[in-house]
Structures are given as C-alpha cells and as structure tokens.
Amino acid sequence: MNKKKKLIIVSIIAILIISYLVYTIYLLIKEPSDIFTVEEGNVYQEETDIGYIIRDEQVVKGENYKNGMQQIKSEGQKAAKGESIFRYYSQNEDSLKEQIAALDEQIQEAMTNQDTILKLSGFDSDVKLIENQIDELVELLNKTTDLTKLAEYKKEISELVEKKANIIGEKSNSGSYLKQLQDQRSSLENQLNSGAEYINAPESGIVSYKVDGLEETLTPDNFSTLSKEFLENLNLKTGQIIATSDEAGKIINNFEAYIATISKSEEAKNAKIGDSVDIRIPNNKEIEAEIAYISQENEEETLLVLKIDEQIEALTSYRKISFDLIWWSHSGLKVPNQAIAEQDGLKYLVRSRAGYLSKILVKVEYQNDKYSIVSSYDTEELRELGFTESQISSTKTLAVYDEIILNPDLNKVE
C-alpha cells in the first residue's frame, strides 16, 4: 500500500472520529434542553424598580456648628428623647486641652516628689491603692470607644487624682502648691465644659449624620404632592450614599419608612391600598411592605408608595435605590412554561419514564414569564370536567423528580 492510500485511509478515519465526537457533544447539549426534572420550587412575579426613600426625620443643629462636632451617638444607633447625640467643640478647646495636659504633668511630678514623705508618714499604702485604681481605669479608657463611657472614666480618674493630691498635700509642706495646680486644672475643665454645646434628641429614634437637605421635601405628610416629574426633578443618583455632615445630625423614626416608585406593570394598575407585597432591598433582604398610596400617572405608569417597618437602619445612607418589587410568591411543583401544552382547553405535560411517554393532566396554579406551579385535579374536579370513572381511574399524576419533555407534541403521545 503506497503512502497516498494510507493518507486517504487515515483522513477518512479522522473524519469519522471527529463526526462521532461532534454528534456526541450535540447529544449531550441537546438532551438536557429537551428534558426537565420536576422539583419543589418557588415561582415569583416580580419587577425591578427605582425607589425614593421617604422618612419621618428631624434635623437637629446647634448655634456653634462652625466649631466642628463630636459624635456621641454613632451613625445608626438609637437614642431616647432628650439624650445627647453629639456636641459642638468650644472655641478654644485645643488650647484648653493643651493647658490641662501640661498641668497634669506638673501635678504628677509634684506628687512623685512626695513619695519619700508618704513612706515616712505611713500613707504610701493609701496612695498605692489609688494609683492601682487609676491604672485600671486608664486601661479601660484605652479599650473603649463609647463616648459616654469615656467621659465617665475620665471623671473617675480626675476624682482619684484629686484624692491622691489631697492625701499628699495634707502630709506635705508643698501641699499648697499641689492644691494650686489642682484648682487651676478644675478652672480650665469648667471652661472646657461650659463652652461646649450639647445637642439632644428631640424625639426617640435612629441617629444619623447623613443629611442631604431633602428631609423637609420627602416627607410622609402629603403623598399627593408626589409625581414622576417631581421625583425625577430631584436629580438624585441611584445607589449614591448620602454624605456625612459635620455640622448637623437628625433623628429618624425607626418604626416606619416609605418607598415611592413608578411601576409599568399590570399588577400595579390593579393594586389596591392596603395590599401586601414583598420587596428585596439592596442588602438582598426580603421584607414585607404595604401599599400606602396609589396614583395613576398615565395609561402605562402607576405611582406607588410602599410602607415598611423593618430594615429602616439599612436604608439611612440612601435616598434613591434600585429594588425588586415581588407581587406574589408561591411554592409547589415547578415546571417551565415551555413544557406545558394545551389540548381541548386543558393543560398537559408529557412525562418520559423508561422511554415511555405519558400525558399528565395538570392545573396551572400560578405562572410568571418562565415558570409555573402546577398540581393535579382531584376526583371531583375530574368529574366536573366530564371525565368518566374509567378515565378518572387511569389518570396519571405528576410527582417530584419526574422527567418531562420540553415543547411536547401531544399528537405523538397516546
């Protein structure tokens, strides 16, 4: 056999192998698309919309807002009515703090110089106890970020330092000098505290420093002022985080908030005030909402205001979001719509079992664009449909893990 014949044979074999592989791959791809395994599942009717957050919120701002502010309550924390939430610095705060720190060093130095006197007088054990208490408080001070606790620890330390100074002063000729330093420190602390402006919560609620100037514009007081044009003219960016203010804060009602949206769905057109729906917010949490207001913008668009009473803290940083509006959700035997065929006004699936195809009569309970929840007719329902007793006894039902055909041809099934 010459080389030319060998080459032809090898080429034919290669073509056959490639053809077989291509056909095998085709079958692997084609088969799953023709068969669907029935499972228990959920079917949703949902849409993705743009929502505007409406809150019952009250901005609080003091007179010394130009001095800068220190948060007492952190973003998202809850505050009781009358509780301090932040404060403005006093005018000379940095200078006063430097003077107090310098006096603390002088006081510490003066007290250290009295150690010998204390040992001779027998009061060193009392001072040592106080110093241990101070060390413990300093350790706690370094570990906490709670401003209320910080102030409490500082006050206790100051009282202990004064107590130590008094003991030393009583047993020392230099006690008057130490007392003088303590008096100077107390005077500076009084100036520091009297110059600071504390801002208290006018109502109980969530503390936030995300102030965007829309607190008096987007309110739950009058939904009738809302419209598509009104909302769009706010010129807000979807998902943009509201900047933190360094001049003001606000208290947000933590019991309820609202989301205004424009929907083009048929469900929105048919909705009623008081209807319950579910929504999926940006943190992927699904929560229940109630339709609080409806206004028909035009033939295609409906303005909805949804009331929520949970996950309010998760939305304090936003004014405009993208969210999913879930009109209904039902569970049961889930099948693709393309597996359902109609004959004589009834719906059927075609089941494949061990190579044998069977028509399965089903009721379509719920349906969205892609999937349906189906169930079987009971005996009484079949009788009402005109089935004979013989037909009823031979009627097959669908079960979990049954394999059904997509795009079935009922004429080819007995």
Protein traits:
alpha+beta, elongated, 414 residues, three-stranded antiparallel β-sheet
Q: Could you walk me through the main structural features you see in this protein, from its secondary elements to its overall organization?
A:
- This protein is of the alpha+beta class and 414 residues long.
- Helices cover 35% and strands 31% of the residues.
- 21% of the residues are buried.
Outline:
With 414 residues, this protein is α+β, with helices and mostly antiparallel strands.
Write the layout of secondary structure elements.
Blueprint: H1 3-34, E1 35-37, E2 39-60, E3 69-71, E4 78-79, E5 84-88, H2 93-112, H3 115-121, H4 124-143, H5 147-170, H6 175-195, E6 197-200, E7 205-208, H7 228-232, E8 249-263, H8 266-270, E9 276-280, E10 286-296, E11 302-308, E12 320-336, E13 341-343, E14 346-353, E15 356-367, E16 371-375, H9 379-384, H10 389-393, E17 403-405
Antiparallel strand pairs: 1-17, 2-8, 2-12, 3-5, 4-7, 5-6, 7-8, 8-11, 9-10, 9-12, 10-11, 12-16, 13-14, 14-15, 14-17, 15-16
Helix pairs in contact: 2-6, 4-5, 5-6
